[in-house]
Amino acid sequence: MKDLIPEYKADLIAARKYVAKLQKIIDLKYPPLKNGQKRKRNGIPEEAIKSKVNSIIDSTQYALEWIEKGYEPGLRRPIERRSMEQREIKIEDVEVMRKWFIQNHGIAYEMVDESVEISEWDRMKMEDAMSTLSDQEKKAILLRYEENLSWTQVADKMEISVRSVRSYADRAKKKIQERLDKNLYCMAI
């Protein structure tokens, strides 16, 4: 795979030179217009060719970046805005996250007969944090994260807009985090 990199880079250089050459032809054939005049973009065949070559350049840059990095470039969206395939987490990642969580927050559950039970302390912290939420915020959080419904499904059940559901959930998450941080501060004293 790495042997393709020099070929892709050479193709990019050639394509960029070709686009520059096309731009010179366009500038010679169609000089700049005076202020207020408009030119039809469809009337310039070189412009269409230039557009296609620019598309090829973008695709080649994307492929080159993928080859160099070893993974898909440009995943910069938050997890809830990604497609379903991008939201899937590999088992190894879950194990790493579990170890990190235990290291930073302690064990959140106790295994009894292979069933998950939440410890009494964690249950108290959750009840305390949830008590600060309004009914709408509780409903939005529980439907979204406990019942694993999509934002649209939650909005349909609550009979409000998706944007409102998201704002309720965001506010609820902030309140819960603030409450948990406050409890951790009280524990330290």
TrEMBL record:
GO terms for molecular function: DNA binding; sigma factor activity. Residues 124-176 form the RNA polymerase sigma factor 70 region 4 type domain. InterPro entries: RNA_pol_sigma-70_dom (IPR014284), RNA_pol_sigma70_r4_t2 (IPR013249), RNA_pol_sigma_r3/r4-like (IPR013324), WH-like_DNA-bd_sf (IPR036388). One of its GO terms (biological process) is DNA-templated transcription initiation. Pfam families: Sigma70_r4_2 (PF08281). This is Sigma-70 family RNA polymerase sigma factor. It comes from Listeria booriae.
